[in-house]
Specification:
Blueprint lengths: L1 H10 L3 H15 L3 H6 L5 H20 L9 H13 L6 H19 L14 H9 L1
Length: 134
């Protein structure tokens, strides 16, 4: 996770793009920073390094005006943890689709200005019920 965060920050021109890359990368790879930060046995230096990079990205996102001012590094860690844990009771393909949409919707909600609409149509409650049971 540290490498993913540091590479995203170093390689992306805009901080919000680095944040997006980190969030989507963790979700896609099943990396849960909430678990890593919350584990007492995790090396403190590693936890601190991850949080420092995320705090730097969040601060830069605020400075560039792309990230909402009420979003902090702890929010990012918490949201990614929720995205990674997913929905264990849905079929695998649907779970991956829901996770990808959730990543895009969460990132759009963190933006300080309008963001591109996620791909595909909105998933209605009926659609979800049919796909889960079918």
């Amino acid at each position: 996770m540290i490498a993913l965060a540091e590479e995203a920050r170093a390689e992306e021109t805009w901080a919000f793009d680095a944040l997006s890359r980190f969030v989507a990368g963790c979700a896609g790879l099943g990396l849960d920073p909430l678990a890593a930060v919350g584990v007492a046995e995790a090396p403190g230096a590693a936890r601190d390094r991850l949080m420092k990079v995320l705090e730097d990205v969040v601060r830069a996102g605020h400075d560039e005006g792309a990230l909402r001012g009420d979003v902090g590094a702890g929010d990012v860690v918490g949201v990614v943890g929720l995205l990674v844990r997913g929905l264990p009771t849905v079929p695998a393909g649907l779970g991956e689709e829901l996770r990808e949409r959730a990543v895009r919707l969460v990132l759009a909600g963190m933006r300080a200005h309008p963001a591109p609409v996620p791909p595909g149509a909105a998933l209605t409650a009926g659609d979800l019920a049919r796909r889960v049971s079918g």
